[in-house]
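Lay summary. Proteins are chains of building blocks that fold into shapes, and those shapes determine what they do. In this project we predict the shape from the chain. Here is one chain we studied, written as its sequence of building blocks.
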Amino acid sequence: MIKGLFTNEPSLRSQLADWEKTALLKFEEKMTDKKNPFPCIPATIGFSLNHLRYGFAGDPRKECSTRELALLLEDFSRNSRHFGNYTSLIIFFNTPQSMIKTFNVQQYEQLFWQHLNMLSELDTSKWPEDIPDNPHNPIWEFCFHGEPYFMYCATPAHINRKSRHFDFMMLAITPRWVLKEFNKSESHAARIKLQVRKRLADYDTIEIHKDLNLYGKNDNYEWKQYFLRDDDTSLSKCPFHCFFNFFKKEP
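And here is the predicted shape, written in a compact code that computers can read:
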């Protein structure tokens, strides 16, 4: 049964299963580490202000877990503007130890795109008219419930890119309106972005991935940044397929 969205309040943790408590604690440790600060400064701000919302889903290999994710993301989409300007939805999957021991980065990558494809299939809202349906368009991004989102995936298999490592398969889903709000002050945003890249260079044991770029630039493709591999390689073609042409027909 879906519990719904959570905030990081100690009083709510009694409602969580043991693995859910562990995931939230591990995430808190990552967001509050002073010796080795997490590179994404807006994410750490969102955590400190309690703007982030959390959801828990089952085994990431199972279709029912994507259905859980869809319900959580729909709830978040309806209410995100009430959570604060630094909000994101953090999804923790109940990742079995057997999977953690055997799955490599590419297998997690395949799972990630399976989730996005199925989310699109489950979406009951129209794809936004101002967002193209072709992922190889520089202004394309994943949309759900009428909202454009930046997707981030972390996995237990990432070693070199510690910024993409987490003890459970995890998604961080950030609305485009949050990113637009952040970029309103160009000079402030530019300073933060420089700090983020410096932190990223210190945090990971591998060079910053060439696919990390700025939204809207002609040489940028958002989908390439959603799932970064643990080396400098990347997919040549986006695995995402819009389903709205088939499932969002006018009555």
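What the prediction tells us: Residues 61 and 111 are 7 Å apart (CA to CA).
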